[in-house]
């Protein structure tokens, strides 16, 4: 008597039902980005309203979005949101550390220009990656790269015109990030495209 045993493999399919982190991440850039840019353009004064937005909506929200993208296996989203979250924390530290007397200053014009240019380079590389994504995201990253390079030029040359120009481009970039964040939210709520992102 022969006994035949057949091993059957069961396949378990796990469906990811967590919300997308994109809206949180883009709002984490757009909202503080608009405020900082309004200050750079000379429209509003810099103060604790901006610093609070930078630390909490910028730093914490974007870092959280980066961790959410890591959980979903999205390396691009993890790197973008996570790094920009840490950018906002470092930006706040640039303001707070000298004010608290923990360091003398930011290291001078050359250090600030290098800091901003590195972030511009990082953003430019993300922009190249976004060429396979939505037109709205391409616009956000393209204008943000311009903002960083203009701010770097302003820091390197001491010419306020570059910083003011960066402020106006940054206002456009920040509002475009807010739109790019909220368009998919509205489209999901209404079940159809009412706010296109290209």
Describe the structure.
There is one protein chain. This protein has helices spanning 22-40, 48-71, 75-99, 108-130, 135-157, 160-190. With 198 residues, it is an all-alpha fold. It has one domain. The longest helix has 31 residues, at 160-190.
> Which structural class matches the secondary elements?
mainly alpha
Proportion of residues in helical segments: over 70%
Q: How would you sum up the major sheet?
A: none
What's the number of structural domains?
1
Provide the fold topology.
Blueprint: H1 22-40, H2 48-71, H3 75-99, H4 108-130, H5 135-157, H6 160-190
Please summarize what this structure is.
By secondary structure, this protein is an all-alpha fold. The chain is built from six helices and no strands.
Features:
198 residues, mainly alpha, single chain
